[in-house]
From TrEMBL:
Membrane topology qualifier: Multi-pass membrane protein
Major localization class: membrane
SUPFAM superfamilies: Mechanosensitive channel protein MscS (YggB), C-terminal domain, Mechanosensitive channel protein MscS (YggB), transmembrane region, Sm-like ribonucleoproteins
Subunit structure: Homoheptamer.
Name assigned to this protein: Small-conductance mechanosensitive channel
GO cellular component: plasma membrane
């Protein structure tokens, strides 16, 4: 048989070569596929086991470390499978390295997020379970992943923030200390008794079991406003009790002031009218 260029083609020889290649590479290919499937199963099983073990001891390190180990093991598995098929390992590693460099240049932001995640795990400005305020969001840290940190807001939203932003920007961690100061300001009328109002605030402070006596609360005149005398009330409470205490105290103070005849003035303006002369 001749091809388009007039060269004789021996079909029997081509058939023998094809059969030889099939016989040579089919077992290797099947073994490589089997190794890949079993290897992926083992990697996922190992990572899940590691996730379960580390999650009990350090939830902060959990997701980050498991994701990193999973990626490394899968790359090693692919290199092993490629060598089983007959691909030179050194060549394959060189290709993977070149591809990694190109991908790294294209994904510089992701690398910055990865580096940010490492910095977060090393310096630990926050951990899983802490309440933080960052990038305009306030919520509880749910996960610290390789590239992102997931927080759940108190109105039940899930916010994903890049680790690079968290490691390079200012954030507030409100869970570091076990107690916090609850700052409140209450305005009373200029005709009301300041000492009486201060005693009412002190009484409400002592009646609430969540109030902490150390440090001592601060009750004083914060300023003389246009329409009211502003009393500054600064008790200390447990971190978890801060907002419930704040909301409850607002209601208690209003009711106590009403019962004791202490007024809470609202903004008002006096208008004086003058009659113009007919001249």
């Amino acid at each position: 048989m001749e091809d388009l260029f007039g060269t004789n083609i021996d079909l029997s020889e081509l058939t023998e070569k094809a059969i030889s290649l099939v016989m040579t590479y089919t077992p290797k290919l099947l073994l490589a596929i089997l190794t890949l499937v079993v290897g992926l199963w083992l990697v996922n099983r190992f990572v899940n086991l590691l996730d379960h073990r580390i999650g009990k001891k350090d939830p902060t390190l959990n997701k980050f470390l498991c994701g990193l180990i999973s990626a490394v093991l899968k790359v090693m598995l692919l290199i092993s499978v490629a060598s089983m098929i007959g691909i030179e390992t050194t060549s394959f590693i060189a290709v993977v390295g070149a591809a990694g460099l190109a991908i790294g240049l294209a994904l510089q932001g992701s690398l910055a997020n990865f580096a940010g995640g490492v910095l977060i795990l090393i310096f630990k400005p926050f951990k899983v379970g802490d309440t933080i305020e960052a990038e305009g969001h306030l919520g509880s840290v749910a996960e610290i992943q390789i590239l992102y940190t997931v927080i759940n807001t108190f109105d039940n939203r899930r916010v994903v923030i890049p680790n690079g932003n968290l490691s390079n920007a200012t954030l507030t961690n409100v869970s570091v200390y076990d107690k916090r100061r609850c700052d409140m300001t209450f305005g009373i009328g200029y005709d009301d008794d300041i000492d009486k109002a201060k005693k009412i605030l002190q009484r409400l402070f002592e009646e609430d079991e969540r109030s902490l006596t150390e440090p001592a609360p601060r009750i004083c005149v914060a300023g003389l406003g246009d329409n009211s005398v502003d009393l500054m009330f600064r008790p200390w409470v447990g971190t978890d009790d801060l907002w419930p205490y704040y909301w409850d105290m607002q209601e208690k103070v209003k009711k106590a002031f009403d019962e004791e005849g202490i007024s809470i003035p609202y903004p008002q303006r006096d208008v004086h009218l003058y009659n113009a002369s007919n001249d």
